[in-house]
């Protein structure tokens, strides 16, 4: 499984629009093959920071997601609303069972 952690600082005058296009992107992405989860959150401690948390079944599914024209448009649009360069981290993950008794 691939975990995507992304964050972007949005200009104050653009936050409502950034949230709107991010919510649309999340809903659309959830329908893509291999998307296990996809969400965006506003950081309660950092006004204007959006945080993306995604789980993808494979490298291939994520690669295809990044190639979807709507995903490319979204990234370009969000970058124009940002006050600094967005950050994306990809992590390889293994799911383990939740410990008993915890």
Task: Give your account of this protein's structure.
It contains 3 helices and 4 strands. Strand 2 and strand 3 (49-56) form a beta hairpin. A 4-stranded antiparallel beta sheet has the order 2-3-1-4. It is globular, with a radius of gyration of 15 Å. The model has no long low-confidence stretch (mean pLDDT 96). The protein is 37% helix and 29% strand. Helix 1 (15-30) runs antiparallel to helix 3. It is α+β, with helices and mostly antiparallel strands. It has one domain (2-92): Alpha-Beta Plaits.
In brief, what are we looking at here?
The protein has helices spanning 15-30, 59-67, 69-81; strands at residues 2-9, 35-42, 49-56, 87-92.
- The topology string of helices and strands comes to EHEEHHE
Q: What helical percentage do the residues reach?
A: 25-40%
> How many domains make up the coordinates?
1
- Cα-to-Cα separation, first versus last residue: 24 Å
Q: Which consecutive residue ranges, at least 5 long each, have pLDDT under 50?
A: none
Major sheet details: 4 strands, antiparallel
Enumerate the strands of the largest sheet in spatial order, edge to edge or round the barrel.
Answer: 2-3-1-4
CATH class: Alpha Beta
Count of alpha and pi helical runs: 3
**Overall average pLDDT:** 96
Q: Rg to the nearest angstrom?
A: 15 Å
Proper CATH architecture: 2-Layer Sandwich
Shape: globular
Strand content: 25-35%
CATH topology: Alpha-Beta Plaits
**Topology, number of strands:** 4
Q: Based on helices, strands and strand pairing, what is the structural class?
A: alpha+beta
């Amino acid at each position: 499984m691939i975990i995507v952690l992304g964050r972007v600082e949005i200009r104050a005058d653009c936050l409502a629009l950034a949230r709107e296009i991010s919510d649309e992107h999340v809903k659309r992405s959830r329908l893509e093959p291999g998307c296990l989860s996809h969400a965006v959150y506003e950081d309660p401690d950092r006004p204007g920071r959006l945080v993306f948390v995604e789980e993808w079944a494979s490298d291939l599914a994520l690669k295809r997601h990044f190639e979807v024209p709507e995903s490319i448009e979204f990234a370009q649009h969000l970058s124009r609303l940002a006050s600094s360069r967005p950050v994306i981290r990809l992590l390889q993950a293994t799911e383990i069972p939740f410990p008993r008794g915890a």
